Amino acid sequence: MKTDHLLFGAAYYSEYLPYDRVEKDMEMMEKAGMNTIRIAESTWSTIEPKDGIFDFTHLDKMLEAAARHHISVIVGTPTYAIPAWLAKKYPDINEFNREFGLDYWSNCVNTWEDFPDIRGTINESLAAEFAKFQRLLVTRFLAWQAAIVSGYKRPDQFITQNFDYDWTDHSIGYQPEVNQYEAARCMTVAGCDIYHPSQSLLTGEEITFCGNISRSLKKDNYLVLETQAQGNIAWLPYPGQLRLQAYSHIANGSNSVMYWHWHSIHNAIESYWKGILSHDFSENETYREAASIGADWKRIGTHLKNLQKKNRAAILLDNNSLTGLRLFPLKALGNYSYNTVARWLGDALYHLNIEYDMISSAERDFSSYGCLIVPALYSASEDLLTAISDYVKNGGHLITTFRSGFSDEQLKIYADTQPHILQECLGIHYDQYTYPVDVSVTLPDFMAHPSCSGHENAASDAGSSCSDESCTNSSKCLHWMDLVTCDTATPLFFYDHPVWKKLPLHWN
């Protein structure tokens, strides 16, 4: 979706105000150059106080006030609030037992009426299938809502959804509970929330990684529907950082920057998650910096809208692999191992100033990219692995990591030498692996100081022993060891250990 101007504003919930100041807030927004607000998605009880009884008085008041101050409104749909699908998919219950390996430890289901509770299951294939079903429910639910709204909206109105990301203490990566690529199909334009640290912790990595996902969902511009203003207690931005964040979002392909939220909340769990205005509602430094952004975009916004990228590198993302590595996590990385590995690769590209897309594992044609980057593709169908192999045979460049081509769509491990199907194009194979204990990696000479400029920062997340004072050509192996045999590949790294010495490193 293209737009004739940038959207700039905040989430706004007047029902949370301690007193009525809608008109004053709209005046301050207009003064700050804001042109868009987001309302209503958290207010089901206000709009429908009793079952089937609707009251739009509050909503009408907001829309009328916004219109008086030339502010557009994104109206959210207020939805915070025996699997028949398996029986239909597998009418033969014996086939179901075989497919999911339920004969292990006598977990077979003899009748559908005896189907066990999925919670706490010891069968990871079944858990992954249920997670897949949950993602499908989200996709169908959003499509159902979008179809209803489409029947009423004007041609100039759009449908979006503020997709969140996987979360640690900020946005980190691909969302595990939603297949964003499938769910975005019913949207006019993809929307998202991106939260990133401020002050000395602001890097731009989260903006780039998560924004690249959003831009890739519909291969078009997207909307940032939430990002922090003052944010959490430790996120009060340094002077100039709000501006830096805003321009970073736009440069990544967003057509909007909207803050969570307009004013700080006076009670409940987000009392200390501060908006543009503090608890006293007065103008402050954050408001004044937001106003300067609004003034800029009134002046030059038409030159910044609809910015396009045509990237030659892409990272491939897969929900089921994310699920698989949560069920079988890497020792040191816990439940977030998939996104951690993806972030290693994405952040390395960011620091090399290499632009990249984030494509779905549902794609099969990668010919538009010169380099395909595949993090930890734990679960993959044979047709996907074949498509990747064909891409390499046709001249494409593949970068992949450990745990790729390991199991099928049901998390059943392939019964041949790993990596399944990718052996030829990678020129390696392995049949043993382990967690590393006191294992280092011998680096090639060109990666040692001083010739490897920036080696310390680039390798710090991998546990490098390199430092400004004393540099060795060794780095710690922390997370995983594949005991690789090179068939046609030329190794650059070797394990440095009395037992594993001179074994080539796959990628750790």
Kindly describe this structure.
The protein has 508 residues and is an alpha/beta fold. It contains 15 helices and 18 strands. The longest helix is centred in the first third of the chain and has 27 residues, at 124-150. The model is unreliable at 451-472 (pLDDT under 50). The chain folds into 3 domains: 7-81 and 137-304, TIM Barrel (Alpha-Beta Barrel), CATH 3.20.20; 84-132, no CATH class; 313-496, Rossmann fold. It has a 7-stranded parallel beta sheet with strand order 3-2-1-9-8-7-4. A 4-stranded parallel beta sheet has the order 11-10-12-13, sandwiched between helices. The radius of gyration is 25 Å and the shape is globular.
CATH class of the largest domain: Alpha Beta
The CATH superfamily of the largest domain is identified as: Glycosidases
The CATH architecture of the largest domain is Alpha-Beta Barrel
Strand order of the largest sheet: 3-2-1-9-8-7-4
- Quick one: biggest sheet? 7 strands, parallel
CATH-defined fold name of the largest domain: TIM Barrel
Strand content: 15-25%
Structural class: alpha/beta
* Number of strand segments: 18
The low-confidence runs, each spanning 5 or more residues with pLDDT under 50, are 451-472
C-alpha end-to-end distance? 40 Å
Number of domains: 3
Could you report the average pLDDT, rounded to the nearest whole number?
87
What percentage of residues falls in helices of 4 or more residues? 25-40%
Helical segment count: 15
**Radius of gyration over C-alpha positions, nearest whole angstrom:** 25 Å
Net shape? globular
